[in-house]
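Example record

The entry below shows one chain as it appears in the dataset: sequence first, then structure tokens.
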Amino acid sequence: MDEIVVVKTCEIAGSVLAIAYALLLASNTGNEVLGFTILLISTSLFAAWAIIDRRWAFLALQFFYAVSALIGLIRFSA
């Protein structure tokens, strides 16, 4: 697959999933586990994009979002 297609796919899918995560958490409907799972997937896509484009600061930011997602999953799964 062409690198540009992969980058665009990660960018668009990651953004859509990040919006879905934010809406799920803001809705306060008890879907926190789903929301944090979506955040983890979104962060993974953004991390792949950061690695391909060699955007190391953006990759570091995704690391902290992933940690946040894991904390949320642990907290709301119990």
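Notes for this example: The radius of gyration is 13 Å. Residues 9 and 53 are 13 Å apart (CA to CA).
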